[in-house]
Amino acid sequence: MLPTVIASNVAAFDARFAAAMVTLRLDSYESYLTAVSGGADSTGLALLTQRYADAKCKSHKAVIVNHELRDGSYDEARRVQNRLKEYGVVSEIISISGPRPKSAVQEWARLNRYHILISAARQRNAALLLAHHAGDQAETVAMRLLKGSGPTGLAGIPALRSQYGVIIARPVLNWPSDQLSFFCSLCNCSYESDLSNEDRQFERVRIRQLLTSLSQQADEPSSLQIQRLSKLAAKLTTAADEANSNHLSGAVKWNHAGYIRVMIADLACLPDFRWRLAIRRMVMAVSGGIYAPSSVALDRVRRLIHAGKSATVGGCHFTPVQTSVGLGRKGKEYRLFREIGRHVNVTHICGGDEVVFAGCWLVKSKQEGVLHALGDVQKITNGKRLNALAKNLPDSWHLIPHRARQAIPVLTTLDGRLIYPQLIGDKPRGSIRTLEAKFFGIAKNSAFLADKLIGKIS
Question: Does residue 14 sit in the same domain as residue 161?
C-alpha cells in the first residue's frame, strides 16, 4: 500500500476514534488505561489510544494481565510489552497468582482480569478502555438470546458504565470486527494469535462460528440483524431506566451504611418489566454480586412483598418495617440489606492500600490486616467470642440497623485487634482515618450504578 494511502487511512482511523471518544465524553479524562491481551483487537485499541493521547497531551498506559494458564505465558506477555514499546506505548505486566479452578476457567480468568484492571485504573484515576467491537456484541446478544433473556439482557455490552467507581468504556463497540486488525496492518504492527479462539469447547467460539455460518445464508439471521436487535433492546432498557429514575427519586433512599430504604407502595404501580429492572439494579448494587437475579426469582419476591412478607434474592434480604415516618409519610417501608451468607468473605489489605470488599465497598486502610463482615467475626476468630470488642462499637453505629451493621466490613489487624471503619458518603470528610469504607451505591446516579447484568436475565 502506498505511503500516502496508508497515511490517509491512519488519519481517518484517528478521526473516527477521536469522534468515538467525544461521543462517550471520554475526551474530558486526562488519563486512559487500556487492557491488552496481545491480540489484534486490544493491540489496535492500544495503538489508537496512544495516538489520541499524544495528540491531546493526555496520559495513557496499557496493562497486560498474565493469567499463567499455559506454559510460556509470561514470555508472550513480555513479547507483547516489547512490541508496544516500539510504538511508544508504556505498559505493565500483572500476573495472577493462586490456585486455578478445575472448571469455568475462562470465567475465572475474566473476573480476575477485571478486578486487576479496575484496581489499576482507580489508582491512576483513569478511564478503563476495552476493545470489544460489534462482533463481540453480536456474540454476547446471541448467547443471551439462546438462554431466553429479555430486553435487559439483549441490550448486550454497554459502551459506557461505572463499576467500583471506575468508568469502563468501549469506544470501538460499533466498529466491524476486522477494523482493529486492519489498523494494526496499516501501522505495520504484528499481534498474537490465540488458539483458544478456535476451541469449540467454549460457548463463545461455537456462537461465533454459528453467526459466521448464518451470515453466509441470506435468509437466516445475521450478526447485523442481531446488533440491530441489541440496539433496540438497549433503547427500551434505557427508556425504562430513565422512567424509573424519575419515579423512584422519592421512594428510594440509599444509606452510606450499605443498605436501602424503599417505600414499597410507591413501586406497586410499575409494570413487571420496570419493577424487575428497578429491583434488579438495587439488588446488584447492595449485594455487590456478579450475576443478576432471574425474572422468576424477582416475580417471587414481588408476590412475597405484596403480601407484606420478607424475601431473599441475589444475596440480599428484603425486610418489612412498619413506620409512621418512613420516607416522609406513613406506610410500609422495606429495607434491603446485603446477606453475609454461609461463606465468609475475607480480603487481605496492606497498609496504605485500598481494595474492593464484597463487590460493594471501597475500603482504605492505614494498617495491614484482614477485612471481613462484622457478622463474620466469630467465624474469623475460630468461634472465639469478642464481646469486649463489640462493646466498643462507635456510637454512630448503634443507629445502624442490625442487618446492615452485620454486613459492614471491619478490619482484624495482625495483632488481633478489631477496627471499625469510618463510613463515608459522596464527599469524604477530612484526612483518612485508620480505616474508611465507602458504599458504592451512594455514588453518582446510585440507583443504576451496578450495571453488571450477566447471565439469564430479562
Answer: yes
Burial class (CB in 10 A: 0-12, 13-18, 19+), 110: middle
Q: Could you tell me if 129 and 34 are in contact, meaning their C-beta atoms sit under 8 angstroms apart? A: yes
Q: Identify the pLDDT of residue 312.
A: 94
Report the candidate in 339, 413, 340, 342 with the shortest Cα–Cα distance to residue 381.
Answer: 413
DSSP 162: E
Estimate the crossing angle of helix 73-86 against helix 40-56, to 10 degrees.
Answer: 30
Distance CA 369, CA 360 (A): 19
Its domain, for residue 429, covers: 347-442
Half-sphere exposure of 367 (CA within 13 A, CB side): 18
Q: How many structural domains compose the chain?
A: 2
Q: Is residue 434 part of a domain?
A: yes
| DSSP states along 406-428 | HHSEEEEETTS-EEPPEEE-SS-
**How many C-alpha atoms does 440 have within 13 Å on its Cβ side?**
28
Q: Note the pLDDT tens digit of each residue in 203-231.
A: 776 877 777 776 666 555 577 788 888 88
> What is the C-alpha to C-alpha distance for residues 36 and 46, in angstroms, rounded to an integer?
7
